[in-house]
Write a structure and sequence with these properties.
Layout: E1 2-6, E2 27-28, E3 31-32, H1 33-41, E4 49-54, H2 59-67, E5 75-79, H3 91-101, E6 108-112, E7 115-117, H4 122-131, E8 135-141, E9 152-156, E10 162-167, E11 177-185, H5 191-198, H6 206-214, E12 219-224, E13 228-230, H7 234-243
Parallel strand pairs: 1-4, 1-6, 4-5, 8-12
Antiparallel strand pairs: 2-3, 6-11, 7-13, 8-11, 9-10
Length: about 240
């Protein structure tokens, strides 16, 4: 299994904090956000290598961080070449870019570089093993904490199969389950990423890919318990700083 951490965004909703610093490198308890994520991933024995995709503007910052970080799992930084928010590749294209550049023919564990969580990933990986070769996404019950329509809304049946997925809908369908930026794509299904990418779909939001995927293939959801933060704006970052 290979892990890919998506960290090539420009974090414009967090300006001015992210004007000169990559969002995944913002500090929480004295450590950058991405370090918490990597520490969770490297505990998964199935993960043989971690790829972190950044943009050209912040690539050197990630390199400086990596030069001073000791990881038990090999980490490789990937530069997607973009220079600013206007010419960014988008999350889906970044994912396809890494797979093609590194000739990845393996199961994928994909994580957002701005998602902070307290829970272990071991049970999620065990869940994916039982369901392969199906796609699996991490889901989280907001329990009214945040407005659900800021996220991808998920509805599942009693087998945990995703029967509806709506990326940031205008109206809710009654579900408080949302998609976290944590996904398992088995190697048998990785080609669907390229298919989506080549069909002139939305390449920025990976939730748009999941909405498309759930209509064409089997997707299952694993519900996480614990603390989870999507560091998207100043409010969510402030909350994470004071409560994580």
């Amino acid at each position: 299994m290979k892990a890919i951490i998506l960290a090539a965004g420009y974090g414009t909703r967090l300006y001015p904090l992210t004007k000169e610093r990559a969002k995944p490198l913002l500090p929480i308890r004295g450590k950058p956000i991405i370090e918490f994520i990597v520490n969770k991933v490297q505990l998964i024995e199935e993960v043989e290598e971690i790829f972190i995709v950044s943009n050209n503007r912040f690539f050197k910052q990630f390199q400086q961080w990596l030069d001073n970080f000791n990881s038990e799992t090999p980490i490789k930084l990937i530069n997607d070449g973009s220079l600013n928010h206007k010419d960014k590749l988008g999350a889906v294209k970044d994912l396809a870019f890494v797979c093609e550049k590194e000739n990845i023919d393996d199961d994928l564990l994909v994580l957002g570089g701005d998602n902070l969580f307290s829970f272990s990933l071991d049970e999620f990986v065990d869940f994916t093993k039982k369901l392969r070769p199906n796609n699996v996404i991490g889901v989280y019950n907001l329990n009214g904490k945040l407005k659900a329509n800021k996220f991808g809304i998920v509805k599942m049946d009693n087998t945990s199969k995703v029967i509806e997925f709506f990326e940031k809908p205008n109206q809710l369908n009654g579900s408080q389950l949302i998609s976290t930026c944590l996904y398992f794509f088995p190697k048998e299904k990785v080609s669907l990423i390229k298919e989506y990418f080549q069909a002139d779909n939305d390449l920025d939001k990976i939730g748009s890919y999941l909405e498309w995927l759930s209509q064409r293939d089997s997707v299952y959801g694993y519900t996480f318990q614990g603390d989870w933060f999507d560091i998207g704006d100043l409010d969510s970052y402030t909350e994470a700083v004071f409560t994580f």
